[in-house]
Amino acid sequence: MFGLRAVSPGDPATLMLGEGATAETIARVREQEGLDDPIFVQYLDYLQGLLVGDFGYSWRSNREVDVMVIERIPATLELAFAATVVALVIAIPLGVVSATRRNEPSDYGATLFSLLGISTPNFWLGLMLILLFGVWLGIFPTGRRPVGLGEAIWTLVAYGSVGDLLTWLRHITLPALTLGTYFTALITRLTRSGMVDELGKPYVMATKAKGLPAVLVRYKHVLRNTMIPIITVLGLQMGTLMGGAVITETVFNWPGLGLRLIDALDARDWPLMQGVIVFIAIAFVTINVLVDGLYSALDPRVSDE
Amino acid sequence: MISDRITANLRQTFRDSLLPKIGMLLLVTIVLMGVFAPILATHDPTRTGHYDEGGNAYPPVGFDYTTQAAVDGEIQEVHVTAESAHVLGTNNVGQDVYSRFVYGARISLLVGFTATLLAMLIGVPIGLMAGYYGGRVDDTLMRVADTMLAFPALVLALALIGVFGESPVYVPDPIVYLGLADGMPESIPIPGTVTIVAALVIWVWFARVARGEALSLRNEEYVKAAKSFGTSDRDILIGHVLPNSITPIIVLATIQVAVIILLEASLAYLGFSGTTLSWGYEIERGQDILRTRPWVSTLPGIGIVLTVIAVNLLGDWFRDALDPNLDEGQRGA
């Protein structure tokens, strides 16, 4: 990542100072920032900084990169969380219904929906939702995040007012639907195919023979066994969720990490861009470890190996 | 390589269900549209300035809209009607939406198929060798693969493009070259960096699947027999291991074409594609005028959805017919 910075066009000193800077000022800033050092010296400096939590300064705004990254985390987390909730709440019942009523109209409906869901680019979906719900129907706002979830909960607890929470809900609805649709579709497909396999297994017949109610069996036993592959896939799809968040944030002007990354890229603001990417990388390693843990919690056989 | 049993399976699944037929019909239509774009297009897709007298973009035929414009120094409501020469209207810089729609198919399909092919060429040999030889090579590969699979492909692609720039490759258009379509652009810009970057973020999926196959095949009797005859590892890999692992690779490739088409559209939407003839780019351009001229963003999106649906339907067909064990987890990016 860092090595590539050396070959990229654009002089950072000029970028920091703007086009009108004199040659002397540029030279002085290059000196100060160590930009004249060989690239590996710069790299070692950067790594040394990372170890003590120093991500450097943004070339564009001259603010500390770690602050610029951290302040954007809540918005992205809220969005990812809301999208996952949307996906799970819609997809699992849909998949179960689809699997238990195979080749009935509800199954065809669910299949068609999930095919559309995995085939629609989310930025376009976002724009269409804006057009439908924002412009024509005027039900939901079409962008921005005037209040964070944290503040909204605080006003609820401290002042007993639900106003902020409602504002937050109204603003996050369309972004969450936009980001969540792909996952809803994917989980519906997974739940359906997993349930179909699982329902054919002998133990399901055995529970029927014991006289257990079908609904109980379906949700307690069959769904639980189906969840294992679903969680694995969701773990693998975390990257897609983050990628989707980058786009969704751009469409809705949602001030999260993704929007910050796009802005940094547009401005060729390398320290900021590196900061965001290093942060995302650390976050993903952590998520992977957590998903592995969840996996063995759901299926005791995994930890036996 | 492809046995009779496989072709028979494919044929039977195709005959038995409706969805592969729809997918095939859609994809053939879109491919033909892309190939013959210069003939099908009514205007040069890059030519700007198709406006009415007031400088307003035309709506699609059958629609009209009102906008505000300065007439004799005063702001007035202006009624804009469709123009039959521009069936699907024009965009905010006055380009013909229908012609751009037709050309957009080329970029999506070219990037989708080229990048998948590239990713296969990188991933399959590496995966086969890792699985076949095992040991340290294999361990290293799986570490790299796990890391890459977990990382957001879009973010990786953005970072790579941020570094290398978004250089388009201009390819001469054979149809225009042959003189079959006058007045169309002589060359079309293909997003070169995007194609390579897409292959670079996708290849690990192929490496993983190929590795898994090679791992199980290396203990097969016929591989051991070939080895005992003194056949070289290279010949065993090409002659025995590759042909027997080709079906899951084909299934995976179909899914990845869809994934890459979406990735290219996303990158173009974010402004990092390097070509302006892409559906994704056109959607971005329509975003600012979504309220007044929604058709600019809407139509290219329908193009993307139909293309991806077509590829996904064929992917489902291949999977059902060839390799029921491959699951949704293989859907990358």
Task: Describe the structure in your own words.
The complex is a heterodimer of chains A (305) and B (333). Chain A is an all-alpha fold and 305 residues long. Helix content of chain A is 79%, strand content 0%. Chain A contains 15 helices and no strands. Chain A is elongated, with a radius of gyration of 24 Å. Chain A starts with a helix and ends with a helix. Mean pLDDT of chain A is 80; it is low at 6-10. Chain B has helices at residues 4-16, 18-35, 37-40, 97-133, 135-150, 153-164, 174-177, 192-217, 221-228, 233-244, 246-269, 279-287, 295-322; strands at 64-71, 74-81, 168-172, 187-191. In chain B, strand 1 (64-71) and strand 2 (74-81) form a beta hairpin. In chain B, helix 1 packs across helix 2 and helix 1 (4-16) packs across helix 13 (295-322). By secondary structure, chain B is mainly alpha-helical. The longest helix of chain B has 37 residues, at 97-133. Chain B is built from 13 helices and four strands. Residues 326-330 of chain B have low confidence and may be disordered. In chain B, the strands form two sheets. A two-stranded antiparallel sheet of chain B has the order 1-2. In chain B, strands 3-4 form a two-stranded antiparallel sheet.
